[in-house]
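Interim report to the steering committee. The following record documents the input for Alpha/beta hydrolase (323 residues).
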Amino acid sequence: MPTTSTPESASRRSLLKGAAIAGAGLAAAGASANSAAAKTQASVHAAKLAGDRLVTKDGASLYFKDWGTGPAVVFSHGYPLSSDAWEDQMFFLLQNGYRVIAHDRRGFGRSSQPSSGYDYDTFADDLAQLVEALDLREATFVGHSMGGGEVARYVARHGQRRVAKVAFVSSVTPFLLKTATNPNGAPKELFDTFRAAVQANRSQWNLDVTAPYYSFNRPGAHVSEGLRESYWRQGQTTGFLAAYHALGAFSETDFRDDLKKITVPALVVHGSDDQIVPLEISAKLTAGLLPHAKLIVYEGGSHGLLHVDKDRLNADLLAFLRG
C-alpha cells in the first residue's frame, strides 16, 4: 500500500484538515413508522439466506457475520469501511453473552457491487431484510458515522417492533448539508470536492483521510500505522460506485424526521475533536431529537472512536445494553 503522499495529496490533506465535515406527537410518529413498515414488508420477505450471505430482493449479495447467542446487537459500519471496523466491539460483546451481527453494506467490503441502490432507503431495506431473515427480536442497533443514518432510516421505514434500543457513534445524523433550514451545515461544494478526490486518486484519498479521521494530525498524536493500513485496506475493498455515491448519500440525506420516529432508549456517543462530523452539528442535535437519549462526549475524541477509544466505547455500550 502507499506510504507517502504527493504534493497533490498534501493539498488534499490541508483541505481535509480545515474542513468541518468529511466523509465523510410520539404516538403520531409511531403510527407513521408502522405505516412505512407495512409498505416495505413485501420486499423483506423476498430475501434469501445462503450461509454468510443474504441475497436481497433485487439480487444484491450481502456478506454478514453472526456470532454467538443471547440478546442481539446489530452493527452498521461507517464510510468507506466494512463490518471489520466493528471487530473490537463485536468480540467484546460476544464475550459478555451477546449475539453480534454486522453486514457489509451493498458495494462495501465483501458484498456485491451492483450498479444502483446507493441510497438510504435501499440501505435501510437491505438491513431490514437481514433482520427479518435472521428473525432478530428485541435487538439493539448500533451505527457508526454513515451507519448512524442507516439505523435512523431503518426505524423510520420499518418501525420499532424488532428494536429494543439504538446507539449512534460519531453519527452523520441529523443532517450535514447546508440548506435554508440547516444553515450550519457544510456547502455542497465541499462534498463535490471530496467526490472529485475519490475519482482522481481513491487510493491516496483513503490514505490521506486517516489523519483527520483519527486525529493523527494533532500535535503529539500517537500515529498507528496499523490503523491507517486497516482503514486503507477496507476503503480499497469498497467498490468505486459505492465509494463515490455514498458520499452524496450521507452528506445530502436529511434524517431529522427519521430521528423523531425513534422512541426507544438511545445512546449518542461523539468525540469533541471529531474533524469529520463535528460535534456541534451532529450528536448534540441528534440527542435533542430523541426523547430518551443519553449523550456522552469523549473529550478530545476523534471520529474513529471505535478504534482509538475502543475500551471506553466497549464499556459504554455494555453499560447501555445492561441498563
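Residues 135 and 271 are 34 Å apart (CA to CA). The committee is asked to note this result when reviewing the revised timeline.
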